[in-house]
């Protein structure tokens, strides 16, 4: 598993829209081959942090490095290489509705490699097998269920063999069985290919299943309030906000006791 | 004491550094052969690696093949796919292939490749249609579309008549909003266009009329053309482009986001809730826009008349007044209101037709503009015939 080489470095990151500060001075690292979960209550800026990490938003202060490259670099060539080195799965799948499943997955391969069409077809079949969707090449996204759409999104994110894959709420809107299947798929791919993964979620079950480490954000504190192994945090954390989250209890109870 | 053929190949790709692999071969052709792989087997080396190793397989056609993976420094799932393909090819040529000395990481990656998936046929195949089938399909689509438009017109008329008798059921704040969007916001561009149109018309007609010394009639020509035809028509085309398309895109996006479903289950009629305010607003504001367009068209003509054709401003205005009857203006106002209903109605109808995603929104928006302008021109010619007999 994780060999403690940082793949992603987040340094002193502050997110601010106009006068509203979402979080400030956030710093952490993601190690090679680990699954890091970013968690926190609604509105704490989990998705904002993710969008900063993939370079969609510009930071107010600080920076994010992936494999040593600043995600907001102005160097086009570096940025291109970086973009090919990361894969992102979006909350709603973000599949292109006018393209079939196979075309969705083949798109980055067609644009970025000079492989023959037959080879691309074969790679697409392999990726579909990877996400347990063999045979679904010619389906349109609208013909798929929510869980399938997420899995196609994952296959597309994996198309260029990225070293880091980001997940935005992978289990949102899925039934428990599909959630577990997706979690196992994430674990399987992480173990098999050694891909580093950053997952934004607040599904407790998923967190305990997949996370090697978590980073917990808080809305009021506007920064990271806990970091580490979730199983350890559940037992040994002292911060009432962290305990309330992991034990699924209302915060008021912990405040009364402490 | 095998013959050793060192083959090394480096992928010639722009920037890259580590994109290298090499294959060494131990053994004689036709006997037990070992390929010793080293370096990087990945997406970027897939093509040269496959070409190379299949060429070697052809050249040696071994009795049995051992692939030694001890030197492989990096393998991703595409690299693993290449190895799986090699095995499958061996099976097809009935050559036993063995992948040897695979490290833990390599075994793991090979393990997640689902071999059955590679040969699974697609669950759904696209059928190719012949010419006759396509003509049939096109006809069905056309008739369907016609039926839908007629049904929508019916619904819309019922909703409008209902609104006439229950004016408090109309969302007037929305009507005001769309009157500003479709009307006030269109003033600058519509004024400019009709002004230029009036100028062009006056100038072009003066070239002909000059030959008969009849340049004074430029004023009545511009006035009649602007008031009876071009004012309402230009306005309708303008509104189709600006607002018909916007209505289609807005309602279409609401369809995609299930907002229209929400409106329905909350007990509102989507047509009354979404279409009526837009159509009413357009019917109120477009006749005003038409008058505005007529005014600027005549103003453009006046400018040419006064400055290029030496007509005095007084006589230009008198001639213009003589040329226009009140009947013309009234009929144009009615015509404009009908155009407005067509353009806004088609915009809404195309919006409600959206199914699927972004692409459908685009297609229906285009269709709203094209169908809107088409119907406006068809109805305009019907008006021309009807007005000819009424007058």
Automatic annotation (TrEMBL), chain A:
PROSITE patterns, per the entry: ABC_TRANSPORTER_1, ABC_TRANSPORTER_2
UniProt keyword annotation of Nucleus present: no
GO molecular function: ATP binding; ATP hydrolysis activity
Domain ABC transporter: 8-246
Domain of life per record: Bacteria
Gene3D superfamilies per UniProt: P-loop containing nucleotide triphosphate hydrolases
SUPFAM superfamilies tied to this protein: P-loop containing nucleoside triphosphate hydrolases (SSF52540)
UniProt key word Transport: yes
Matches recorded under InterPro entries: AAA+_ATPase, ABC_transporter-like_ATP-bd, ABC_transporter-like_CS, P-loop_NTPase
UniProtKB keywords: ATP-binding, Nucleotide-binding, Transport
Designated name of the protein: ATP-binding cassette domain-containing protein
Lineage of the organism: Bacteria, Pseudomonadati, Thermodesulfobacteriota, Desulfobaccia, Desulfobaccales
């Amino acid at each position: 598993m994780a060999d403690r080489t940082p793949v992603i470095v987040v340094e002193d990151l502050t997110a601010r829209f106009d006068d509203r500060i979402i979080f400030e001075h956030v710093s952490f690292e993601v190690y090679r081959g680990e699954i890091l979960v970013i968690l926190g209550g609604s509105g704490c800026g989990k998705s904002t942090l993710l969008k900063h990490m993939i370079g969609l938003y510009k930071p107010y202060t600080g920076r994010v490095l992936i494999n040593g490259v600043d995600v907001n670099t102005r160097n086009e060539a570096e940025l291109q290489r970086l973009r090919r080195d990361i894969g992102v799965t979006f909350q709603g799948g973000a599949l292109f509705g006018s393209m079939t499943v196979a075309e969705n997955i083949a798109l980055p391969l067609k644009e970025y490699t000079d492989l023959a069409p037959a080879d691309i077809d074969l790679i697409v079949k392999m990726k579909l097998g990877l996400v347990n969707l063999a045979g679904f090449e010619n389906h349109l996204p609208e013909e798929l269920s929510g869980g399938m759409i997420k899995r196609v999104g994952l296959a597309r994110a994996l198309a260029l063999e990225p070293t880091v894959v980001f997940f935005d709420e992978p289990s949102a809107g899925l039934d428990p069985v599909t959630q577990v299947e997706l979690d196992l798929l994430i674990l399987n791919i992480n173990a098999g290919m050694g891909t580093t993964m950053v997952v934004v979620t607040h599904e407790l079950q998923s967190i305990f299943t997949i996370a090697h480490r978590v980073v917990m954000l808080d809305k009021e504190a506007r920064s990271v309030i806990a970091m580490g192994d979730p199983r350890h945090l559940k037992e040994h954390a002292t911060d009432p906000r962290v305990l309330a989250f992991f034990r699924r209890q209302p915060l008021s109870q912990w405040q009364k006791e402490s | 004491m095998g013959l050793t053929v060192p083959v090394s190949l480096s992928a010639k790709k722009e920037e890259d550094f580590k994109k290298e692999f090499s294959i060494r071969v131990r053994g004689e052709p036709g006997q037990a052969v070992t390929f010793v792989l080293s370096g990087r087997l990945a997406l970027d080396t897939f093509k040269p690696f496959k070409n190379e190793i299949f060429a070697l397989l052809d050249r040696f056609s071994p009795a049995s093949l051992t692939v030694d993976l001890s030197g492989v420094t990096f393998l991703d799932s595409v690299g693993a796919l290449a190895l799986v393909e090699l095995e499958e090819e061996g099976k097809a040529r009935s050559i036993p292939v063995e992948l040897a000395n695979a490290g833990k990481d390599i075994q793991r990656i090979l393990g997640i490749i689902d071999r059955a998936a590679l040969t699974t046929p697609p669950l759904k195949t696209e059928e190719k249609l012949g010419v006759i089938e396509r003509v049939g399909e096109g006809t069905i689509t056309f008739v369907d579309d016609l039926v839908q438009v007629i049904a929508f017109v019916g619904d819309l008329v019922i909703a409008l008549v209902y609104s006439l008798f229950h004016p408090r059921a109309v969302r007037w704040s929305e009507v005001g909003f769309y009157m500003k969007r479709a009307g006030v916001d269109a003033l600058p561009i519509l004024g400019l266009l009709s002004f230029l149109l009036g100028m062009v018309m006056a100038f072009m007609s003066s070239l002909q009329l000059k030959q008969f010394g009849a340049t004074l009639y430029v004023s009545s020509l511009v006035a009649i053309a602007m008031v009876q035809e071009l004012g309402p028509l230009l306005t309708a085309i303008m509104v189709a482009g600006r607002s018909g398309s916007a209505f289609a895109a807005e309602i279409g996006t609401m369809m995609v986001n299930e907002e229209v479903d929400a409106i329905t289950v909350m007990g509102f009629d989507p047509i009354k809730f979404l279409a009526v305010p837009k159509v009413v607003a357009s019917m109120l504001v477009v006749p005003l826009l038409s008058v505005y367009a007529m005014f600027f068209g005549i103003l453009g003509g006046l400018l040419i008349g006064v400055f290029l054709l030496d007509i005095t401003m007084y006589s230009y205005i008198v001639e213009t007044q003589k040329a226009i009857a009140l009947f013309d203006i009234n009929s144009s106002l009615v015509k404009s209101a009908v155009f407005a209903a067509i353009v806004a109605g088609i915009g809404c109808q195309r919006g409600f037709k959206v199914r699927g995603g972004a692409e459908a929104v685009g297609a229906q928006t285009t269709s709203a503009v094209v169908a809107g302008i088409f119907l406006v021109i068809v109805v305009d010619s019907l008006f021309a015939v009807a007005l000819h007999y009424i007058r």
